[in-house]
Write the C-alpha cells for this entry.
Amino acid sequence: MVQLNFDANQVAPSTGFDPVPEGWYNVAITESEIKPTKTGDGAYLQLKVSIIDGPQAGKPVFIRLNLKNSNQQAVDIAHGELSAICHATGVFQVSDSSQLHNLPFQIKVIVKKDPQHGESNEVKSYRDASGNEPGRPAQGGQPSSFTPAPTATAAPQQAAAAPAFGTTVPTPAPTPAPAPTAAPGGAVASHPNTGWTQPAPQAGQPPQQVEPAPWGNAPK
C-alpha cells in the first residue's frame, strides 16, 4: 500500500490519447527523453510534440527515434528524421534535446492501425514553420523586385549655346567677289554680282576706268 495524499479535484482527468485525423499540423516539441528498447540492447529518443493551433490544438503526437539499435538501418532512419527536425526548427548543432523545445515546425501525421494496440498516429514528413521541406529551397517565393538599370545612351548633341548678354560676337569676314571676266570675242564684260556690263576695250586703247553702279542700278 502506498500513501498518496492526492486530490483529484485539483487535476483534470485524462481523456486518453486518441489519434488526431491525418494531415499537416503546426507543432512544437514540449518534452523529450531517452527510453530503453524492449530488448534492452538499445535506446530511443521520444519526443512529445503538441499541436499549437486549429481544432486539435493541445493534443500530443509522439515521435520515437531509434538512436541506439542493433539494426543499423533503424539507426540511419532515426538520424535522418532527427536531421529533418533540426532543419525544420533551425537548430543544426544539438548537444541536448531541450534545444529543440518550443520551436514551431510542421509535421504530416497519418493514422496507423495495429490489430493489437488499435489506432495510433505516426509522423511521416517534416516542414519548417513556413511550409518549406527540409534541405530544399523555399517554394512559392515572391519574384525579385530588382529591375536592371537601363543602358546609358549618349545624350543628343546640343546646339551651340547663345553668347552671354553683352558679349561681342566677331563678324565673319566677307567673301571677296570674283573679278569681272571678259566676254569672248571682244563683247562686253559682265560683273558676276550686280549684272552690270562694261564694253570691252578697243584694240590699242586702255580699258576705261568706270566704277560699277550701286547694287541694282546698272547704267542705262
Q: What stands out?
A: The radius of gyration is 53 Å. The CA atoms of residues 34 and 41 lie 13 Å apart. The chain is about 10% helix and 25% strand.
